[in-house]
Design brief:
alpha/beta, Aminopeptidase, binds zinc ion
Length: 361
């Protein structure tokens, strides 16, 4: 057996206690708790026809994974659809708070410009792609596995759930949201002051549409005061990361967003900028993106609103010791060395041999 640790019950208790005494739970400095976030979207879906929530799966520890569909489009097939993956790494908060913040603002925004944009764009938000990790403030899921190294094989229920949501909604664009620590001297982007917007390209080929979309979003991020570096990863890189998987295996323009500021606002700006870019110029983007993905005759599933049933209490999430694969290596199933078993067998053998020797002598 791999060694296990129990997440301090206090973490679960804190998550259970719900929002602190502030106007919005996401105003608190730490990451928005899983229960708070899901409760917010459940309530928003009840109160507003902008929002529907759907359960799309269950984590290793049994927590529901939600997809939140945000649009005013009468028919989702007429909208430009954007899949947003938040908090795939449980210890990288920010994007889930930004999702709540932005959806809350859009719900109450009667500006005809915002309403028009939301008729042309549909967001499929996964606010907690890794509920176990979010509750425990850990990178991996309850198996201790880094989900963002599991996309090639998709061995975990969390990656399988998001894959199902992708296949159901056939998004034109995928945004995968992460956080890096520029203070970490060993981190890949130590000292870097800008966020990262990375696309995947095959060799020297990346679709003009995907590249143009990356540039347009980068330009808007720069203009709104959250400068990004644009980068590409290509054939030489493993496809076990979400954005590379969706780009290489499904042909969807997919961007890895790495925020280096430990703030919510750069994520919120990215979501607002995506809505503005796609919603103001659908004539430019919709046909190009439909062609790229071969989606002109695609028909959307019926939108159904199904509030996420949260457990009455959060059991302590049983975590295996975190297994942090180095760099961009592929996920490999954990090799559990039964050390206790080997030691036990050795002791029993030693005792038996000793016993036999004593009998013979
Ligand atoms: Zn990450």
């Amino acid at each position: 057996m791999a060694s296990r640790s129990w997440v301090r019950p206090a973490v679960a208790l804190l998550a259970l206690l719900g929002p602190a005494a502030s106007a919005h739970a996401w105003d608190r400095p730490q990451g928005l708790g899983y229960v708070d976030g899901i409760t917010y979207f459940n309530d928003a879906a009840r109160a507003s026809d902008l929002v529907t929530v759907e359960p799309i799966g269950t984590s290793v520890a049994g927590l529901p994974i939600a997809a939140v569909v945000v649009t005013r489009a009468a028919r989702p097939e007429d909208a430009i659809r954007v899949l947003v993956i938040c908090r795939q790494h449980g210890h990288e908060p920010g994007s889930e708070r930004a999702a709540c913040q932005v959806v809350d603002a859009w719900r109450h925004d009667a500006d005809p410009k915002t309403v028009r944009r939301l008729r042309r764009v549909a967001f499929i938000l996964i606010p907690y792609a890794n509920p176990d990790g979010a509750v425990a403030d850990r990178r991996g899921n309850a198996h201790g596995l880094d989900l963002n190294r599991d996309w090639q094989a998709r061995t975990q229920p969390e990656t399988q759930a998001v894959e199902r949501a992708f296949l159901e909604w056939q998004p034109h664009l995928v945004l995968d949201c992460h956080v890096f620590d520029p203070q970490d001297p060993n981190g890949p982007w130590a000292g870097e002051a800008r966020d990262l917007l990375e696309a995947y390209q095959r060799g020297d080929h990346v679709s003009d549409t995907a590249r143009a979309l990356q540039r347009a979003l980068a330009r808007r991020q720069n203009l709104t005061g959250w400068p990004v570096r644009e980068s590409y990863s290509d054939r030489g890189f493993r496809l076990s990361l979400a954005h590379r998987h969706f780009a290489a295996n499904h042909g969807a323009p997919s961007l890895l967003f790495e925020c280096g500021r430990r703030q919510v606002e750069p994520f919120a700006a990215l979501f607002r900028n995506t809505l503005a870019e796609l919603g103001d110029d659908p004539g430019r983007w919709k046909p190009a993106l439909d062609n790229l993905r071969g989606l002109r005759s695609w028909r959307a599933p019926e939108r159904r609103n199904e509030p996420i049933a949260l457990p009455l209490y959060l059991r302590p999430v049983r975590l295996r010791r975190a297994q942090e694969p180095a760099g961009s290596g592929d996920f490999r199933p954990p090799v559990t060395v039964p050390l206790a078993g080997i030691a036990g067998a050795a002791m029993v053998t030693y005792a038996l041999v000793g016993l036999l020797r004593r009998r013979r002598s």
